[in-house]
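Need residues for this backbone.
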């Protein structure tokens, strides 16, 4: 175990490692004479500042800077107007060619292609380790040339749960075994996830454990209804930063104006919400690559249109790019699985659980927002992860599902009678009231019934996990930490006493009130008589179907012990 140290290289570098590089565009910082006196007005813009502080000067390309200072009598080494270049006392020179001019005035040439340097040196271990990961030798790579690489992007359409198609920007990556979609775009589709246990690893076999599930997708070109391809995409929080990382200059893009491009704005940095991997590469590729010129990206024909991929040489702009690649070694999958097995078999002593950041936020939310009425009943607010989105489409889904439910109940009078009894009890106890207020989320509901000793038992389920164009209500709520006791502890404690009382809290969830500000997220559709208009009701108590309901119910009991335990 040791800390890794990242040493900045004093050369202007541009290195890309697929989607793993981190870049910042801008000009290289220039060296200055520490003894430089106060400057007069700027030779470029006329303002009262040094040339090195001129925004307009920094925005120019190296070639434009040289041309602007061609008749200037100041120093082209330290950019001072107090003396000329021959009288400059600065020990610094150009970091690229070591000539007596400023690095901001260096114009890269094609000869710089041979000046790339690669250094592979293991770093010495440090005794002050703060991480459990072992870091292998670091690879740092630098280059004096401005070679940019375009990863192929395409605008395609993806089908949602209602059969409608939405445009999505994808990157084509033949080096990936799987295809991926972002969680943000998945929420818009209103589709259901399929659980999966795929093992994903990147460079250096680094494991990635952020897979939310698998989504069956149907894709088609943006301007045609055929062909259509089916692909299984893994849902992740994020795929990559904006692509391309910098804007492609016009002298490059002009070569592609006559092509039917899959991404007409491939030259503008924009977000990517889909990665089409090697599993579909052979399905979309058509024909041979087309060359448009030397040192320019090639054009590949696909079912989505022409895709631009490859490198180009940009000698008009200077960009800083720092890329560090570290190979991390983690315990292998088998060791992890065995560890989980051992943890299940190991008796655990009672201790305070370690909360994750989200669990801690949920706990802090409850502690700061719950309150009690004079009757002693607890009132809570829903623990949203962040500001809840617009769930207006939920009313359409809930209405459609309610009409299907009503049709089903009208065909089964025994089930309808039980359902009416349940809803009547809800209204009678004040747990549900009719409302005309604006809905923030309308929850669909359906019955679950079983026959117990010849009697039909019915339970109404409120489906807060139903997907809308903005995701589901449960997607926006904290689940909260696990407060249930381990079953092993319960069984062991059960044996400690000769007499044990087993009790049940009647309508446990419905003993807890929801704050009036949050009840608009708990609206439902219902009517007792199908000949009358459908009504909108507001659930005043904690609903069964909320992801945070188990945590809130047990947390209220714990709070009751804290508030009343002394009695």
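Answer:
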């Amino acid at each position: 175990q040791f800390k890794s140290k990242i040493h900045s290289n004093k050369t202007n570098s541009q290195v890309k490692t697929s989607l793993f590089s981190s870049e910042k565009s801008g000009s290289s910082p220039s060296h200055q004479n520490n003894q430089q006196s106060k400057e007069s007005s700027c030779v470029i813009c006329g303002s009262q500042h040094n040339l090195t502080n001129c925004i307009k000067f920094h925005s120019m390309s190296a070639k434009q800077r040289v041309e602007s200072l061609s008749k200037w009598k100041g120093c082209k080494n330290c950019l001072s107007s107090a003396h000329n270049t021959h009288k400059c006392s600065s020990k610094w020179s150009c970091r690229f060619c070591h000539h007596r001019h400023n690095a901001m005035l260096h114009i890269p040439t094609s000869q710089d292609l041979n000046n790339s340097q690669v250094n592979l040196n293991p770093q010495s271990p440090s005794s002050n380790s703060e991480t459990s990961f072992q870091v292998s030798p670091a690879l740092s790579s630098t280059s004096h040339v401005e070679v940019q690489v375009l990863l192929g992007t395409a605008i395609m359409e993806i089908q949602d749960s209602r059969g409608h198609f939405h445009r999505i920007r994808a990157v084509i990556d033949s080096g990936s075994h799987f295809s991926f979609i972002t969680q943000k775009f998945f929420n818009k589709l209103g589709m259901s996830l399929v659980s999966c246990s795929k093992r994903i690893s990147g460079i250096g076999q680094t494991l990635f454990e952020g897979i939310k599930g698998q989504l069956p997708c149907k894709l088609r070109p943006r301007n045609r209804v055929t062909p259509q391809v089916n692909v299984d995409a893994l849902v992740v929080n994020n795929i990559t930063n904006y692509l391309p990382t910098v804007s492609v200059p016009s002298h490059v893009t002009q070569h592609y104006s006559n092509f039917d491009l899959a991404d007409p704005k491939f030259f503008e940095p924009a977000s990517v919400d889909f990665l089409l991997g090697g599993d579909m590469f052979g399905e979309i590729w058509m024909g041979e690559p087309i060359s448009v010129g030397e040192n320019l990206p090639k054009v590949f024909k696909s079912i989505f249109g022409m895709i631009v991929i490859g490198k180009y040489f940009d000698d008009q702009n200077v960009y800083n790019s720092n890329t560090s690649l570290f190979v991390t070694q983690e315990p292998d999958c088998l060791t992890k699985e065995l560890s989980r097995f051992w943890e299940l078999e190991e008796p655990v002593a009672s201790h305070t659980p370690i909360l994750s950041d989200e669990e801690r936020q949920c706990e802090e939310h409850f502690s700061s927002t719950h309150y009690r009425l004079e009757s002693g009943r607890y009132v809570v607010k829903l623990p949203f992860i962040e500001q809840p989105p617009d769930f207006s489409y939920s009313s359409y889904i809930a209405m459609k599902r309610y009409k299907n439910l009503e049709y089903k109940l009208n065909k089964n009078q025994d089930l309808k009678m039980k359902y009416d009894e349940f809803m009547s009890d809800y209204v009678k106890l004040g747990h549900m009231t009719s409302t005309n207020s604006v809905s923030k989320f309308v929850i669909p509901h359906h019955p679950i019934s079983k026959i117990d000793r010849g009697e039909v038992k019915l339970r109404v389920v409120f489906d807060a996990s139903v997907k809308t164009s903005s995701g589901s209500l449960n997607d926006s709520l904290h689940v909260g930490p696990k407060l249930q006791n381990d079953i092993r502890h319960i069984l062991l404690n059960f044996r400690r006493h000769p007499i044990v009382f087993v009790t049940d809290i009647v309508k446990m969830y419905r003993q807890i009130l929801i704050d009036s500000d949050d009840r608009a997220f708990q609206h439902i559709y219902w009517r007792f008589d199908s000949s009358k208009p459908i009504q909108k009701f507001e659930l005043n108590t904690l609903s069964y179907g909320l992801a945070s309901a188990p945590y809130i119910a047990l947390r209220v009991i714990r709070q009751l012990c804290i508030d009343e335990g002394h009695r």
